Request: fold
Amino acid sequence: MKPEANNNSIRIVALLVATLANFLTPFMSSAVNIALPAIGAEFASSAIILSWIPTSFLLAAAMFAVPFGRISDIYGMKRIFNYGVIIFTISSLLSAVAPSAESLIIFRIIQGFGGAMIFVTGLAIITSVYPPNQRGKAIGINIATVYIALSLGPVLGGVMTQFLGWRSLFYAMVPLGIVILALTYWKLQDEWAECRGEKFDLTGSIIYSVVLVLVMYGFSVLPSVTGISLIVLGIIGFVGFLFYEMRVESPVLNVGLFKNRTFAFSNLAALINYSATFAVTFLLSLYLQYIKALDPFSAGLILVAQPVMMAIFAPIAGRLSDKFVPQKLAALGMVLSTVGLGIFAFINSQSSIEFITIGLIILGIGFGLFSSPNTNAIMGSVERRFYGVASAMVSTMRLLGQTLSMGLALMVFAIFIGNVTITPNQYPALLSSIHTVFIVCTVMCFVGIFAALIRQKKVETQ
Reply:
């Protein structure tokens, strides 16, 4: 480890900067979900178009996470981190002045581009400066910030949307981005580039990004023939990508990392968990505001229950993962997540607010117990020179899972509602859509329990 990495002040500054940056995107995501009905009202947008406002960001971030993970290992994590904050800040300003839903989606794609640069470098920088016996605690604090942002998003997002308009959400990101840049340039002088001088696999990066677009867009237009065709083409392309990466001298994604069972199964568990849980806020936001006729602020207060539990339990689980086998904690978290989703599988128009809140609390505890230990297991299973790529895989599994989750909601909405504006006549179909998505997500998370258990058995036999 480099000498400066042993300096406690460097660790604190690195954690502070990465944690502040980690606040940006989850706050925006949760706040935008609350603002979707207001955005839809201003632009007279259909449910499908509204769904693309959060989905476009996730898809763009997932496309570029792995390439930027490799770029940060070669050219420097701090440099890529700074570029990401700059792009995110500028795109936030553009989103605030968007003249249409379509232009807002375009600016959200640019936000995703910058967000990918932030995702993959923040966690890698923390992993670089903290020793293994303190890493789980630092990761837990970093992840807790995500959940604090998710907690504040619905509440502040609801207040700002109701009293200042939805555009204020994007304006608020600009000064925060400037503060993060100032801290980075002023206090964080070191650079981390363990693979300096190695070649960047541009061809592999392009193939990877195109494959993700094919799969995710195809999933969003199911059950059409076009959707099925794009998904099949994307899967074929991904197989080709893997074969190409095994042959290239300096791959964008080192496929050999997946021979490590801890790395492979921890990433699989993350993909399943995020795929099953991310659409919860989106679905319940629509349920509470349309079916229950609550205003954005009231809906935000209810939805805050889940991320508050995440923020409380993520640091605790992170500290515990430094002392105990992290896979056991992650498996327990998956079990509780399944229980929380199972509660929402019984949702109907008569469900009480208390019923919704209990489900959110259980789901929040489960996700808090899962995320920090699972991330610690992934980052601790690779060499230093692969921290950027490993961090990118953590981000990719999260973003891909989130996109799959939104894609599932899009597909069900397309089947039950169609590409129309949501009116009271569509409320029964909307409720059926929400109910169906929760059933599917519960089954997915249940399967994830077994993935976590298989992973744990294999790790124990090493």
Observations:
- DSSP finds 17 helices and no strands in the chain.
- The CA atoms of residues 279 and 406 lie 6 Å apart.
- Confidence is low (pLDDT under 50) at residues 1-6, 456-462.
